[in-house]
Amino acid sequence: MTVASRWPLPDRRTAEQLAHDKEAVRKQVTSLSTPNADDDARVAQEVFVERIQRRQLAAPADHATPFLHFVPRSGTRAVLAAANELIVDAGPDELDGLLPGYTPADRADRSPRRRTRVLRSEGRKNVTELRADAKRLRDEKKIMASVNSIVPLGYVIKGNSYPGSTVAPAPFAAQGAGAPVRVAVIDTGITAEARSDGWDTGVVREGTDPVNVLAPLDRIDWFAGHGTFAAGIVRQIAPDCEVVVYRFTSTDGLGTDEAAADMMIKAAEDANGERLIINASFGAPAVDGVPPLAMQEAVAHIAAEHPQVLIVASAGNDGKDLPLYPAAFPGVKAVGALNSDLTPANFSNHGSWVHCSTVGVGIVSTFVEGKLPPEDHIGDDVTFGQDPWATWSGTSFTAPQISAAVAALCGEDAALTPRAAFDQLVAGRPGVPELGTAVHLLPGTPL
Known about the structure:
single chain, alpha/beta, 9 helices, 20% strand, globular, Peptidase_S8_subtilisin-like, Peptidase_S8_subtilisin-rel
């Protein structure tokens, strides 16, 4: 039996459990599907962005990602940018005197493979001033520059789209792949504590998810557990592949353009020429027509220097034809979301730049211990015990399914490259308008 013949995987939940899960998933989908063009929806979204901003400003320095947010005229999504920072595509000899009032401020673990640099304003600047300074560099110095984009997980931050508690689909079981490959999950990391059910056995931790380090300290932080959930998806579809989970975010699920780029490059170099699939369940839009410059550079570097690497990325949850990066960069495979009946999910981004899609509504995967929601007075409390499983929705959880399927196909054939495996995966499958090829892997939750 080939691995592909096992797809889609069966749904082993009882009717009672499924009815329970549907309630949580309906809340997730309603939250994700609220039209962003609606003024009330936009205001509600900004309320949650402001909640996270307050938490970050009060957080310990090693857990904080201070940011600014704004809504550009070209769209209605709240765009996030690192406070007082620009990304510039300039070499060291060009930085001196490049922009008065700014000093170099690269992150400590900056990849030496990147040319792009971070400049930080010595005084406080609002988003309008940062964008004007970046434009001045582009127009007068002919140097590409933009705000240092904040790269959230799933991009659109919504209030009630957090996970619901459910049960494990089956015990962990290897399938005996003869040529397993590596999947690098660039995300929040996973917790330092090992599970007792075997679903994280052998998973390599490159940075761990601290789960609840921000006030009120008795609840899971925003987007904590995201990396654990993505890794669990990979293990379900490709149980024999090597999984390495890299952390690039704060515990609230916010990273920067440069941090995401650095982790992508590190993952490619750590693979040391071996076959690798990089899963990027995150993204940011272009600002003033400029895509995230550090990630753009990372994708180009990986394509040129690491031909055995395939990058798979989430298309985003705006419900529009609005390219998100890295998914929309050339060579990256963008993945949208479907309902369990393989019809388009209302929240999924779409367009000619989306290569394929899979079920992204009510996916079941591994989660972390603790209590949600992250703050009081948002919704009903949900407590996750030892070795928990959860239901969650979004394109964040479609990309790791495709990453895992590519890895599983590679595991059967030592000569198959990830790009060739992707082509094999989508060949002969039906298409969905503006969502590429439909690939049915996990059952999701029918509503």
